[in-house]
C-alpha cells in the first residue's frame, strides 16, 4: 500500500507561484510513477502532470505546460509540483496520485485558489 499526504496549497494572486508537496509512505517510493490531478467545482478530475518511477520521464497537460514543473526527491520520498504564472482557471483541489500496477492511490487533496 501507499499513503500520500499533500501540502502547500493556499490563496495566491494571479501571476504568483506555489509549490505543492506530496509525501509518500509505504511501498518502495522508487517503484511507481506519481501524478498530480486537479478538480474544480462542478468539473471532472483532470490530469495535470506526471513523473515516471525513475524521474526520467515527465508529462504535462497542455494547459500547464511551460508553467508547472513536477519533480521527485527519493531521499525525502516526496513529489513536488512547482506552479508558476498561476491563473484563476488553475483554482481547484489538487490531488497526488501513485500509480501502482492494478491500483491507484490518492491523497486527501489540497486547495489552490488563484484570485484575479
Characteristic key phrases:
single chain; 116 residues; mainly beta; seven-stranded mixed beta sheet; four-stranded antiparallel beta sheet; 11 strands; 0% helix; 57% strand
Q: If helices are DSSP runs of H or I spanning 4 or more residues, what is the number of helices?
A: 0
Given the helix and strand composition, which structural class is it? mainly beta
* Helix share, percent: under 10%
Q: Largest sheet, if any? A: 7 strands, mixed
> What would you report as the Rg, rounded to the nearest angstrom?
13 Å
Global geometry: globular
User: Beta-strand level of the residues, as a percent range?
Assistant: over 45%
- State the low-pLDDT regions, or none: none
Number of strands: 11
Tell me the span between the first and last alpha carbons: 40 Å
Entry summary:
With 116 residues, this protein is mainly beta. It has no helices and 11 strands. It has strands at 2-7, 10-13, 18-26, 33-39, 46-51, 58-60, 68-73, 78-83, 92-100, 103-106, 110-115.
Overview of this structure, please?
The protein is mainly β and 116 residues long. It contains no helices and 11 strands. Strands 2, 4, 5, 6, 9, 10 and 11 form a 7-stranded mixed beta sheet that branches. A 4-stranded antiparallel beta sheet has the order 1-3-8-7, with no helix packed on it. It is globular and about 40 Å long. The termini are far apart. The mean pLDDT is 95.
